[in-house]
Specification:
This protein is 10% helix and 35% strand. It is globular, with a radius of gyration of 25 Å. The chain has 2 domains: 7-54 and 78-171 and 210-487, YVTN repeat-like/Quinoprotein amine dehydrogenase (Methylamine Dehydrogenase, Chain H), CATH 2.130.10; 172-209, no CATH class. Residues 53-66, 68-75, 155-175, 322-345 and 493-515 have low confidence and may be disordered. The protein is mainly β. It has a 4-stranded antiparallel sheet, with no helix packed on it. A 4-stranded antiparallel sheet has the order 5-6-7-8, with no helix packed on it. Its main location: nucleus.
Length: 516
């Protein structure tokens, strides 16, 4: 079983070298690959396995463990998978987030990935972006907070810290305070409580409080609910460029706040979703915001006026697709791996929104919106010129059917590449497409999607790259690639014999808790 590419991002010609070609940065499990499209070769590779910190040895008086137990504990350390990638606006730096809550910054000088810093966050980041000033990282975590970090932390580090690396240190026990339970043998009577008391008496010391993080980090804003996505937008007001932070959460909220350093000021809300909001997408050159989540509709907003322009249904196009269950992705031909249309319509969850180039009539350049629904092997395509249309119909959408569910999308020139959850030998994990408007007046809003064979030839080396199988099972890969549908809340606590009163099928959704 091969690992699919869970993240992909394109790097264009840099201002320092305008004659340089496009590069493609792809994450395959714990590995980060840099591909140059001129030669079609992988020029640099980084593996988080080499970046794992060594496990400190136990003290002499704190040991007492057998050597076998120590070896077993050390073997449980696994390489951290890459879950987010973004590139600075000047195309000089790459920011990656691994599932060990670490934010890592790389430089791209001389076509080589060089890790400059790593900063361990207290909660797992769910969204990350580099601001247009190319000096600040905006990081949102699942706990609901949004932070700003310096892109290069060397100048903000404390004296004596190791240059280039800013991590959260292991807490130390101060004074080793003795633990004294309030209960005694005279107040405890049941056998279960006596065993609990004995366990408490055996506890030697309190766990020490964590030290403050040794790198600069400023809180910009916070949500009470679990944060799902963060985007930075700009708008020209009275001849000045003003920044805004647009955030979404699990409680159906879309909040528009001012940009740093006034992010604590809330400008307004875009309210109307009935389920969680998982993805936000700004249409360049406009005040339009597209949002999607746990509903079978897309919402198009004028975010500057906080008004809803229209909704676009995804259900009819979804019913025409072959919907694969998450735990059966390796066996798409089995009958039990296809959900019923009613189930596909009910459990729809938007997992991706992207703006890609589209060729209009003649040589005119346009843009198109790509929409990915979790576990569905296809992409919904819609020209951005149709987003302003009010009272639209479902046929505005064009369906690009794929062999496997899409994971991520990146733009390269006039084309775009899409990564697929293809785990079988000989299957393409990355494909390239071009979009153009269909001819004729009757189908002026229709688009055609064509394979870009020339670009796919340059991607052959990354398609045939032999990803090392680290023993990850299909269930572990599903947990890495698919998690949007888990944001759906429970429909209320019901008794087993009364299942269906609040939830028609009596399904038990994931608990309404924020992950670390």
């Amino acid at each position: 079983m091969r690992r699919p590419y869970q993240c992909v991002v394109a790097i264009g010609p840099t201002p320092r070298n305008s004659t340089s070609s496009f590069h493609l940065l792809a994450a395959c499990g714990p590995k980060l690959l840099l591909l140059t499209l001129d030669e079609g070769e992988i020029v640099s590779e980084w593996d988080s396995t080499d970046a794992i910190a060594e496990i400190p040895e136990d003290d002499e008086d704190g040991g007492g463990e057998r050597p076998k137990k120590k070896q077993k504990t050390a073997a449980q350390v696994k390489p951290a998978n890459i879950i987010k990638i973004t590139v600075s606006c000047d195309q000089q730096y790459v920011v990656a987030v691994t599932d060990d809550k670490c934010v890592r910054v790389f430089s791209l000088l001389d076509d080589e990935l060089c890790e400059l810093s790593q900063r361990c966050m207290p909660k797992r980041p769910c969204a990350i972006q580099v601001l247009p000033d190319n000096t600040t990282i905006v990081c949102g975590d699942k706990f609901g907070d949004v932070y700003s970090l310096p892109l290069l932390p060397e100048a903000a580090m404390e004296p004596g810290a190791e240059p280039g690396v800013a991590t959260q240190t292991t807490p130390e026990v101060e004074g080793k305070q003795t633990f004294k339970p309030s209960a005694t043998n005279l107040t405890v009577h049941t056998q279960r409580n006596r065993k609990s008391l004995e366990a408490q008496m055996a506890q030697k010391a309190f766990s020490a409080k964590k030290e403050p993080l040794k790198f600069e980090r400023k809180v910009l804003l916070g949500h009470v609910s679990m944060l799902t996505d963060v985007v930075h937008a700009t708008r020209n007001i009275d001849g000045r460029e003003r920044g805004y932070m647009i955030t979404a959460d699990r409680d159906e909220h879309i909040r528009i706040s001012r940009g740093p350093p006034q992010s604590h000021i809330i400008e307004g809300y875009c309210l109307g979703h009935k389920e969680f909001v998982s993805k936000l997408c700004i249409v360049p050159g406009t005040d339009l915001l597209v949002s999607g989540g746990g509903e079978n509709e897309l919402y198009v907003w004028d975010w500057a006026a906080f008004t809803l322009k229209r909704t676009i249904s995804l259900s009819d196009a979804a019913l025409s697709m072959r919907v694969t269950d998450v735990n059966e992705l390796l066996q798409p031909d089995r009958k039990d791996s296809i959900r019923s249309p009613s189930s596909a319509k009910k459990d729809m969850a938007v997992s991706g929104l992207w703006i890609v180039p589209c060729r209009g009539q003649g040589d005119e350049k346009d843009m198109a919106l790509l929409v990915a629904v979790e576990c569905m092997p296809g992409l919904h395509v819609l020209p951005t010129s149709r987003l302003r249309k009010t009272g639209g119909i479902e046929s505005d959408l064009t369906l690009l059917k794929l062999d496997h569910p899409p994971i991520d999308v990146a733009c390269i020139g006039d084309s775009f590449v899409v990564t697929l959850d293809a785990r079988g030998e000989g299957q393409d994990r990355i494909r390239a497409y071009k979009i153009r408007h269909a001819g004729g007046q009757m189908h002026a809003w229709r688009v055609e999607c064509m394979r870009d064979e020339e670009l796919e030839e340059k991607l052959r080396c990354i398609n045939t790259y032999a990803a090392t199988d680290t023993g990850a099972e299909a269930k572990a890969l599903d947990g890495l690639l698919y998690g949007v549908a888990n944001l759906r809340k429970r429909r209320g606590w019901v008794e087993p014999d009364k299942a269906g009163d609040d939830d028609p099928e009596g399904e038990a959704r994931v608990e309404d808790l924020a992950e670390d």
